[in-house]
Amino acid sequence: MPLRKLLIANRGEIAVRLLRGARERGLATVLAASEADRDSLAAGLADEVEIIGPPPVQKSYLDPAAILAAAQRSGADALHPGYGFLSENAAFADEVREAGLVFVGPTGETIRRMGDKAAARRTAAEAGVPVVPGSEGRVEDPEEAARLAGEIGYPLMIKAAAGGGGRGIRVVHDAAELRDQALRAQAEAEAAFGDRGIYLEKYIERARHIEVQVLGDGERAIHLFERECTLQRRHQKVWEEAPSASLTPEKREELCAAAARLAEGIGYSGAGTVEFIYDDRTGDFFFLEMNTRLQVEHPTTEMVTGVDLVRAMLAIAGGEGLQLRQEEVVLRGHSIEVRINAEDYRNQFFPSLGRVDHLRLPGGPGVRFDTLLYPGYDIPPFYDSLLGKLIVHDLDRELALGRLRAALGELDTAPVVTTAGLFSLLVEDPDVRALRFDTQWLEQRLPGLLEEAGAAPTETTTR
Ligand code: ADP
Ligand code: ADP
Ligand code: MG
């Protein structure tokens, strides 16, 4: 049955992106918004707005009952969870379906299987995809962790089984700090995800983060090539590219085929991303996790493949199946996305709140800006700092870098300080231009970069 009315259970730039995708297909739209988002850009664009609760996320965007009640009130027949919030909550996906709505995403069973990162490692290994050496499943107590760590070797990572967004991750350099770090990781995981579960992984130094976009309809799955997301701060991506310029065509094929095989093997339905850690000195790649949802950096894939991922998700959820064959997905050019966060990068990435009095957005050929901003927008203090994403596309990487530099120069959000200034520095950096970086590079380079630029020195920490 074709979908008629879509409820968007999210906020910010992704809510705007989803509204556009729904409207294009002729769907009526309902936005589930907190009281703080009454005047958001998405609220202005939606056909209807349902207020789901006060500003704190626990009482609004993370409250399944409030969202389901809004869905029932509005008569929506489908729900898109976006990313973050409840998007990878298996119980929520089940509840949405039990309430008679279409959940735009995979089944609760699939989310359960891949959303627990410790369990997902097992599934990947069973599908013949290499995983980072580490614990089999969760590690329950510090004594067990110490024993396993001895087998895995140092340095290693403690990760939250329910983790995401770089939270609940700790790097451990030797046995002396293991116990303490394991206890802290458990507490952090409990606070962030309501789940104390942790697991261990060998820490792969000098590595790249490369991830593969997949689409499936439960029967068949294909890949839409990869993204390189190696430039990170605190294990969170800040700059993403598609495709990865650090892969040979053979390695690209190997990696992308592994991701598609994994997705098809689990009967994956919808859009998903299989993340890998890649060592370009040895050519080894290892499965990290699967994100069973639309990803923040999905526009880079859209730019280089011409495939509209939101449209594909809605078509699959509406029962139309996967309309695309693998051979039809072709790479064209190069795309780069940078995350424009309301953070003062010169001052320890301190949140930068307030009213955007001046707003000038970049434009022109090959420039896309996905944002929640409008002139006069007052940034609420309750949510994450992502204001938008600047995405450029051009014939090759060198040209895309030039386009990125020019577009960054156009952006004005005064008086709100954003990370755009940091990207203007990075776009000129010889290592960035020559792809000479790994996942730790940005944190190490940051103090020097800021000093050279004459900004106040900043402190960076590795969690
Ligand atoms: P992606 O995996 O799509 O590249 P991230 O890993 O950066 O995106 O973030 C994963 C999800 O976690 C996103 O949906 C984001 O909204 C959410 N998230 C990221 N950082 C934070 C944070 N500091 N607090 C709360 N949620 C966050
Ligand atoms: P999240 O769910 O928070 O996205 P991930 O497991 O994807 O957590 O890891 C986040 C980031 O941490 C990765 O993109 C990578 O940079 C780094 N990382 C994760 N696992 C490893 C590892 N085993 N070795 C080295 N770096 C890692
Ligand atoms: Mg990840």
Bound molecules: adenosine-5'-diphosphate, magnesium ion
Count of runs of 4 or more consecutive helical residues: 15
Main-sheet strand order equals: 13-12-9-10-11-14-20-18
Q: Give the biggest beta sheet.
A: 8 strands, antiparallel
Head-to-tail CA distance between termini: 47 Å
Strand content of the residues, in percent? 15-25%
Give the proportion of residues in helices. 25-40%
Uncertain regions: pLDDT < 50 for 5+ in a row?
458-463
Strand-pairing-aware structural class: alpha+beta
Number of strands: 20
- CA radius of gyration is 21 Å
Shape: globular
User: What average pLDDT do the residues reach?
Assistant: 95
Protein model, in words:
The protein is an alpha+beta fold and 463 residues long. It is built from 15 helices and 20 strands. The protein is globular. Bound molecules: adenosine-5'-diphosphate (2 copies) and magnesium ion (MG).
List keywords for this structure.
eight-stranded antiparallel beta sheet; 25% strand; 463 residues; binds magnesium ion; disordered C terminus; binds adenosine-5'-diphosphate; single chain; 15 helices; alpha+beta; 34% helix; five-stranded parallel beta sheet
Please specify the SSE layout and strand pairing.
Layout: E1 5-8, H1 12-24, E2 28-34, H2 41-45, E3 48-53, H3 64-74, E4 78-80, H4 90-98, E5 102-103, H5 108-115, H6 117-126, H7 142-152, E6 156-160, E7 170-172, H8 175-193, E8 198-202, E9 208-217, E10 221-233, E11 236-242, H9 249-265, E12 269-279, E13 284-291, H10 298-305, H11 309-317, E14 334-341, E15 343-344, E16 350-351, E17 354-355, E18 367-371, E19 378-379, E20 386-394, H12 397-410, H13 420-426, H14 430-433, H15 441-452
Parallel strand pairs: 1-2, 1-4, 2-3, 4-5
Antiparallel strand pairs: 6-7, 6-8, 9-10, 9-12, 10-11, 11-14, 12-13, 14-20, 15-16, 17-19, 18-20
Helix pairs in contact: 4-5, 7-8, 12-13
Bound molecules: adenosine-5'-diphosphate (2 copies) and magnesium ion.
Residues 132, 157, 159, 163-166, 169, 201-204, 207, 209, 232, 235, 275, 277, 288-289, 439 line the site of one adenosine-5'-diphosphate.
